[in-house]
Amino acid sequence: MSISRRTFLESAALSAAVPAATAAPGDRPNVLYIILEDTGPHMACYGEPLVRTPNLDAFAKQGIRFNHAYCTAPVCSASRSALMSGRYQTNIGAHNHRTWEWHKTTLPTPAKHVADWFRDAGYFTCNLQPVKKAAVNGAAGAGKVDLNFHAHGPDKEKFFDGIDWKQRKDGQPFFAHLTIIETHKGQGWKIARQRPKPELVDPDKLKLAAYYPDDPIARDEYANYLDSYQLVDSYVGQVMARLEADGLAKNTVVVISSDHGPLFRGKQFLYDGGTHIPLLVRFPDGKDAGKVDDHFVSGIDIAPTLLGFAGIKPPAGALQGQDVFASDAKVRDHVFTARDRMDTSIDRMRAVRTKQFKYIRNYCPGTPYMQTNEYKEKEYPTWNLVKALAKQGKLNREQALFAAAEKPIEELYDVLADPDEVHNLARSSAYKKTLNELRTLVDGFVAENDKRVQFEDPLDIYRGYYKRLPEDAA
Asked: Of 41, 156, 285, 317, which is the most buried if we count CB atoms within 10 A?
């Protein structure tokens, strides 16, 4: 049945407070969370001129588009750990990418994975898995979880009840988690290029950021990413069609977002290219359709917001984020992000972003941004291009910054005047007041959230990645 948003949320809050068996079927909304991989807000509805995303654009018109959503870490496992727990990954010791099985954390009481809260309230939880296309009308997810903490219960890797909402009991509401992985560098990029050439993004028409070398390699990689976005858009259309076909669209809140940003200077780094993510929310009654929201949303707000749709309120101390639709939600004037170990690259950065400024503190200033990183070197041609051109002295000032031999201790950018973040103002006396204010914010964030953060033993890192010690034969 179709219900108004107010009735929808009020009935959800009431029924979530009582045992599931006493709640009338259909009273509580289903919640579908679609998480895209390695994507910034590069949809047409966000102003990307060359990409075709008709399904995502239609979805945005039917719901709310948030312009200032930011993940808390620019890499999947750390970011997802925050997204799914509602707590900063640094706060729960889930900050390194990746975390070996013997190092995975247990969430501190009373924190839980978001699916646990839904399950406790009588919801069926599922993580859509790759299955035969006929089973789900082509709308299957990657099945990705990728968290740096263990699940509650005897099976440390089981976070969900099943792999499809069809497995639930009659009348039981569901929380579904769906990863669409095709924008992650890999097979999806290859499949995207199989579309007719007129449907592909023309690399020569791209407007590159100042830090990109204007080279065919860089242009082609960026264009291929946008092509993969178009492939993802078609999958989103399939998911929405399935909701309609299953008769669920009129009682399902749908959220579409991402884990972090893409490409060579985005993914794994604290510039906006790595932390700025899309966020679209559609209510089943069409309330606030077409609305654009310019408030800050942090990655730690996703879990409490998902729970809020069902009227689920975990106890005090369980979450650090907030339900952005709650009547008592506070207006954020800044968001925090953090970078720690990325694969075998040992690093630590903390950042705060306001509407005008970005401040980054580098805790390993003697190291380069572009440390040796097998993943980046294997998957991102532009990464290798920049390194090669830097050695040849063929980069201009803005392009050469990322290839510098050492990072500065601090970075400060006016993101309104300098959206590419290539003019560091940290040593400018004109910005001393701003610098000190943002320093204080980062100091407070670190004091509250970095108690479980420490540098790892390099032998553990080596053993985790290569399954042996350096002196052992390969």
From this structure: 41
Q: Which two tokens stand for residue 23?
A: 């709640």
Model's pTM, two decimal places? 0.91
Residue 327 sits in the same domain as residue 353? no
Higher pLDDT, 11 or 214: 214
Q: Is 470 inside a domain boundary?
A: no
Omega within 30 of 0 (cis) for the link into 168? no
Greatest alpha-carbon span in the chain: 71
- Half-sphere exposure of residue 174, counting CA atoms within 13 Å on the CB side? 25
Alpha helices in 276-352 (DSSP H): 302-309
User: Hey, which residues does 351 pair with through a beta bridge?
Assistant: 337, 360
CATH number of 78's domain: 3.40.720.10
Last residue of one domain, picked from the residues 296, 331, 366: 331
* Domain of residue 387, CATH code: 3.30.1120
SS3 content of the chain, % helix, strand, coil (to 5): 35, 15, 50
Whether 61 and 92 share a structural domain: yes
Domain assignment of residue 396, given as a range: 349-450
How far is residue 466's CA from residue 460's CA, in Å, rounded to a whole number?
A: 10
DSSP letter, residue 473: -
Q: What confidence tens digit (pLDDT) does each residue in 84-113 have?
A: 999 999 999 999 998 777 778 889 999 999
Cβ pair 147, 86 in contact under 8 A: no
Kindly state the tokens that stand for 166: 């069809």
Which of 231, 311, 297 minimizes the C-alpha distance to 39? Answer: 231
> CA 332, 258, 279, 201 torsion: positive or negative?
positive
Q: How far apart are the C-alpha atoms of 12 and 79, rounded to whole Å?
A: 28
Do 377 and 320 share a structural domain? no
**Alpha-carbon gap, residue 457 to 402, rounded angstroms:** 27
* Listed residue (349, 257, 223) closest to 69, CA to CA: 257
Tell me: do 103 and 199 sit in the same domain. yes
Instruction: Say how far apart CA 350 and CA 439 lie, in whole Å.
Output: 10
In a domain, 457, yes or no: no
